[in-house]
From TrEMBL:
Stretch list, region Disordered: 89-110
Composition-biased stretches (Pro residues): 97-109
PROSITE patterns, per database record: HTH_MERR_2 (PS50937)
Domain HTH merR-type: 22-84
Name used for this protein in its record: MerR-like DNA binding protein
InterPro entries documented for this protein: DNA-bd_dom_put_sf, MerR-type_HTH_dom, MerR_fam
One example GO MF annotation: DNA-binding transcription factor activity
DNA-binding found in the keyword field: yes
Alphabetical UniProt keywords: DNA-binding
CDD domains per the UniProt record, alphabetical: HTH_MerR-like
PANTHER family according to UniProt: HTH MERR-TYPE DOMAIN-CONTAINING PROTEIN (PTHR30204:SF89), REDOX-CYCLING DRUG-SENSING TRANSCRIPTIONAL ACTIVATOR SOXR (PTHR30204)
Length: 227
């Protein structure tokens, strides 16, 4: 008996070609296969070996074709850009990819949806973190020494970038990283309390409780400031 076909969601190469030709008239199936062979896109395969391109795959192809057509970039450079974008960086004109130049400010008090905005999608080297936060190396050393920023394996995520950036803002008021240790201690206790309720896995309930904790913390700080 024949084995049932493995279900893999996505567009076939013919559909992708038809979609791309609306914007890139000279693209061909051979061109798409070549870009795959060069490692610029890696579509999933069905059990029979048919390619299935996700929406992200199609966007990568659009990026490659646009960079070739509008900027005349060689594939080697485009591949480096894609690798950087996979770490959450953005390409910069005439230079290496960089981290976002500014962090979005959540409107008002944070809500559950704000959590994850600076999460693990971004993967920075230490120097990329320092440059993106726009702080001197000495300050970053202090931030790390006091446990405010911790590397995740060999990289730093978006939360680390936000903390380093805010540490730089505090430094402009003469508040050094050592003065910020109570914030880290409070965060550790709040995270521990939430984990007791939700368990070690991060879930929607974790996000909701984290948002409540931040709102409570902000309200308590404000309530203790002079009127």
């Amino acid at each position: 008996m024949a084995r049932p076909e493995q279900s893999v969601e996505g567009r076939g190469i013919g559909e992708v070609l038809q979609f791309l030709q609306a914007e890139f008239a000279d693209v061909t199936i051979s061109k798409i296969r070549f870009l795959e062979a060069e490692g610029l896109v890696a579509p999933a395969r069905t059990a029979s070996g048919y390619r299935k391109f996700s929406a992200a795959d199609v966007e990568r192809l659009r990026y490659v074709l646009t960079a070739q057509r509008d900027q005349y970039l060689p594939l080697k450079v485009i591949k480096e850009h894609l690798a950087a974008m996979d770490r959450g960086l953005r390409p910069s004109a005439g230079g290496p990819p960089v981290a976002p130049s500014s962090l979005p400010e959540p409107p008002g008090l944070p809500v559950a949806e704000d959590f994850g905005a600076y999460g693990t999608e971004l993967r920075l080297t230490r120097e990329e973190l320092r440059a993106a936060a726009d702080i001197p190396a000495e300050l970053l050393d202090q931030v790390e020494n006091h446990g405010l920023v911790v590397a995740r394996g060999n990289h730093y995520d978006g939360d680390a970038l936000l903390v380093a950036t805010l540490a730089g803002e505090f430094a402009r008021y003469g508040i050094e990283p050592r003065h910020l240790r109570p914030f880290r201690t409070a965060a550790d206790r709040e995270a521990g309390l939430i984990e007791q309720v939700t368990g070690p896995r991060r879930t929607e309930k974790t996000e909701e409780l984290a948002a409540l904790a931040v709102r409570l913390h902000a309200a308590l700080v404000r309530s203790r400031l002079p009127r």
